[in-house]
Each structure stands twice: as structure tokens, then as C-alpha cells.
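Input C-alpha cells:
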């Protein structure tokens, strides 16, 4: 029974009609569950839809949990059940049902966490990732290139820190606080300044020019790294599919061949 449930809720490219129907319904519910976030006032119909979707996601979380040992079959059974809640999709699924706390405990309103709990609905959109092979390949490519991406990230962070400290000390009149300098440095690095703060001295303007030039390189590097990793992962995925297809053809040929 649990094997059948796992095949329906977890296999992305299954030929099973039930699995395809489940994936389609799930994506539809994820999208309509975001509707209440588009309105300030809660319409009774929208509230009913949200509660209905919430019940579905709670049941789904339970089903994924009880089939965790099948998904993580390389782990001992007790570790597999602990692995799912801390996995990426386990956390996303948990955040998706977080609005349940809204009506389970009224203390969340008193603690002014109501809006935060309501906003947790946004995380439901990440559930769509589970039903896309392309996104799965992209995630694997990012994981494969994580060392290179971390190097670029820390380079950007270090550069932001240096330029923020420099501009904050060179032009204290233009930048009242370090956070203002950091905000400007981030905007200059990404070429997305809003004009709230800007350097007026030649030294500050020189730092701005350097930030624009360095920003082009830092923004371009992750794109090329991820693209290269995606192409490699796509080739590996295609090779696996070709190998599986060849094995199936060989098995079918053996079944059709007469016994000797």
C-alpha cells in the first residue's frame, strides 16, 4: 500500500495516470492557494479555498512522511523518517502548512506573527519544483557547482564590505550610517542604484566606477557557472535515459526471442 502511495506522490515522470493526475491537481492547488495573498481583505470564498488547500497539504505532508523510508532507501528506517522533515522539500511542505497555526492558536495574533504566518503561503510555490524535471536538473547543476558559486559569493560579500567601509569613511556626510553605505554598495555592484545615496567627492565617485565594473564580472560569473553545470547535468541525464531505454529494449528483445 505504501509503495503504491509513494509511486503516486513522488515519481515525476511516471506513466501512471494516477500519478499524472495527482501532479496536475497539486500544481493547480498550489497556484490557487496564492490567491488570498493578492487581496488585503479575506473573502469567505477565498478563506474556504485556502482552508481546503491547507487540509490537502497537511495530508500530503503526512503521506510523504510515512513513505520516507521508501524514498531514502539507502538510509536505516529510523534515519529515513528523520531525513524528510529536514530535507528541502520537507521544509517547504512544512512552511506550506504553517498557516494552520492561525486557527490552531490565537496567541500568534497576540505575538504579532499573524502576518508572518500568512506570508508563509508564498513558500507553497516552491512545491512546484517537485514536479519539474528541468528544475530538478537545475538544482543538481547548482549543487555540482556549489564550490565555484561559493567562491563568487564570498568575493562579492568581501568586496561589498570593503567598498562600504571605504565610502562610509570617505564621505560621512553623504552616508549617515554604515547600512546606508552598504545599501549603496550593493546597488552599485548590481547596477541597480535608486539614487537615495550617492558619492559626491572624486574619491567616492572612483569607488562607484570600480563597483560598476566589478559588478559586471561578479554578476556574469554565476550565470556562466550555472549554465556550464546545467549543460553537463543535462548530458548526464540524457545518457542515463538512453541507457535505461537501451536496457528496456534488450529486455523486450530477450522476452520476444524463442527459447533455445
Amino acid at each position: 500500500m505504501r509503495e503504491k502511495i509513494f509511486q503516486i506522490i513522488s515519481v515525476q515522470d511516471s506513466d501512471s495516470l494516477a500519478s499524472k493526475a495527482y501532479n496536475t491537481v497539486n500544481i493547480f492547488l498550489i497556484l490557487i492557494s496564492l490567491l488570498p495573498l493578492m487581496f488585503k481583505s479575506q473573502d469567505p470564498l477565498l478563506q474556504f479555498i485556502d482552508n481546503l488547500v491547507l487540509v490537502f497539504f497537511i495530508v500530503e505532508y503526512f503521506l510523504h512522511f510515512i513513505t520516507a523510508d521508501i524514498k531514502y532507501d539507502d538510509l536505516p528506517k529510523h534515519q529515513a523518517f528523520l531525513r524528510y522533515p529536514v530535507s528541502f522539500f520537507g521544509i517547504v511542505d512544512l512552511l506550506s502548512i504553517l498557516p494552520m497555526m492561525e486557527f490552531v492558536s490565537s496567541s500568534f495574533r497576540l505575538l504579532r506573527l499573524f502576518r508572518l504566518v500568512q506570508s508563509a503561503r508564498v513558500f507553497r510555490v516552491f512545491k512546484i519544483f517537485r514536479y519539474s524535471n528541468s528544475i530538478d536538473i537545475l538544482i543538481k547543476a547548482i549543487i555540482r557547482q556549489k564550490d565555484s558559486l561559493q567562491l563568487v559569493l564570498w568575493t562579492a560579500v568581501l568586496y561589498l564590505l570593503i567598498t562600504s567601509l571605504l565610502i562610509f569613511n570617505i564621505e560621512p556626510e553623504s552616508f549617515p550610517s554604515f547600512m546606508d553605505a552598504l545599501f549603496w554598495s550593493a546597488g552599485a555592484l548590481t547596477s541597480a542604484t535608486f539614487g537615495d545615496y550617492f558619492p559626491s567627492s572624486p574619491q567616492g565617485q572612483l569607488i562607484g566606477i570600480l563597483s560598476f565594473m566589478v559588478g559586471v564580472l561578479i554578476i556574469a560569473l554565476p550565470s556562466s557557472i550555472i549554465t556550464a553545470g546545467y549543460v553537463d547535468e543535462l548530458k548526464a541525464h540524457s545518457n542515463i535515459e538512453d541507457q535505461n531505454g537501451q536496457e528496456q529494449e534488450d529486455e523486450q528483445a530477450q522476452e520476444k526471442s524463442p527459447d533455445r
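Residues 1-131 form a domain with the Four Helix Bundle (Hemerythrin (Met), subunit A) fold (CATH 1.20.120). Residues 106-118 have pLDDT under 50 and may be disordered.
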